[in-house]
Design a protein that fits this description.
Elements (H helix, E strand, L loop, with lengths): L1 E5 L2 H13 L2 E6 L5 E2 L18 H13 L12 H10 L9 H26 L3 H7 L11 E2 L12 E5 L6 E2 L4 E3 L2 E2 L4 E3 L11 H5 L11 H4 L34 H21 L5 E3 L1 H14 L4 H4 L30 H14 L5 E3 L1
Parallel strand pairs: 1-2, 1-9, 2-5, 3-4
Antiparallel strand pairs: 6-7, 7-8, 10-11
């Protein structure tokens, strides 16, 4: 069987297995990914015996601290994410350093990380022409980084062909993909095209209409940008919660499971409080929503000067970073402040006063 696969986080995960099973695999790559060491290794059976209560939360918090550039005593995750982000988020500072010196130092750190990625490809991929096509050529934070231990070795197999296709696939016929005018005959296609990310409005990601009071849909209300309280409720849509998400007036977490957990705990706690008080209907107060939107706008930091030099991706609005609306960002600068956001939600529940809601 001859297969075709896209190169993406999904594509790199499936390539090693496909290469072992298929007669031939063509990988069509638009932009090479920055793929670091995953560092998978056996877990000592005694690991679970020494875990203290709350270990998982402590581990997630430790990881998130490193992602936000906060100091930690020990790196509990100890993987590619934490190694590189610790450097990216904490470039060397010294007393008297000017802003230009700080920026130059940060760029040098970024370049060193990317050089490390490129050297790794030279070490692992035995075909120089293929290695050259696999090397990322942009800043580390331009695209979502990937981590894998077996991906590059797959290109040393005779049954794997990397097709450099920066302009993408021309079309697909009944025989397979056509790239730059050349037909590739395949028996199957594996699409590694990703998913609807935060650059896609929530109503479209949901896949169906949500209709609020007065027949207004959520898509209509959010036509000019997100409008929420805490990124989870919206005026005119009573008794509705949505989980927090990047670019939705909440925060960004590389480990989305942690953010989903925080959101779920808030929803469960809020519903329990509403039931205890016998409240049947709640809606976001319009003034409270406006205040929250203003907080998001006030803390937004325009990164278009840096991100405009990047290749198109979800991180720069597919090549249009200036088109990112301030209200479609996060609670706090850049990725947002996860810990302040969690404290805010937990404080709201602890107060039990339903601040920002109209009740009946």
């Amino acid at each position: 069987m001859r297969l075709r696969s896209c190169c993406s986080p999904s594509g790199l995960q499936c390539l090693p297995g496909l290469a072992e099973a298929a007669k031939h695999v063509y990988v069509f790559q638009r932009t090479p990914s920055a793929i670091g060491v995953r560092g998978n290794r056996p877990t000592d059976p005694s690991f679970a015996e020494n875990l203290a209560p709350g270990w998982q939360k402590a581990r997630m918090d430790n990881f998130q601290s490193i992602m936000l550039g906060r100091p930690v005593e020990v790196d509990l995750t100890d993987d590619g994410w934490t190694h590189h982000y610790a450097l990216i988020q904490n470039p060397q500072r010294r007393e008297g350093m000017t802003i230009d010196e700080f920026i130059r130092n940060a760029e040098e750190v970024d370049f060193a990380i990317m050089e490390e990625h490129r050297r790794r490809i030279d070490e692992l991929v035995h075909k120089p022409d293929v290695a050259a096509m696999l090397k990322p050529y942009y800043r580390y934070m331009c695209k979502r980084p990937c981590f894998h231990d077996e991906y590059f070795d797959a290109y040393n197999r005779d049954n794997v062909t990397l097709v450099d296709s920066p302009a993408g696939i021309d079309r697909i016929t009944d025989r397979g993909p056509v790239v730059d005018g050349q037909q590739y005959d395949v028996d199957g296609i594996v699409y590694g095209t990703g998913f609807e990310a935060e650059v896609t409005p929530l109503p479209r990601r949901i896949g169906h209409e949500i209709v609020g009071r007065g027949g207004i849909t959520l898509e209509q209300k959010w036509a000019d940008g997100s409008a929420t309280l805490y990124g989870m409720m919206s005026h005119g849509f009573p008794n509705m919660f949505v989980l927090p998400a990047p670019g939705q007036q909440a925060v960004v977490t590389v480990n989305y499971t942690q953010l989903a957990e925080v959101g779920a705990e808030f929803v469960a706690g809020a519903v329990a409080l509403l039931e205890q008080r016998g409240i049947r209907v709640f809606d976001v107060n319009a003034d409270a929503e406006a205040d929250w939107i203003q907080q998001i706008v006030d803390t937004h930091r325009d990164a278009s000067a840096v991100m405009s030099a990047c290749t198109p991706s979800r991180l720069n609005n597919e090549g249009d970073p200036g088109g990112i609306r301030a209200r479609d960002t996060n609670y706090g600068p850049r990725f947002g402040d996860f810990f302040a956001y969690r404290d805010l939600l937990e404080g709201w529940l602890a107060a039990g006063e339903f601040d920002g809601l109209d009740l009946r």
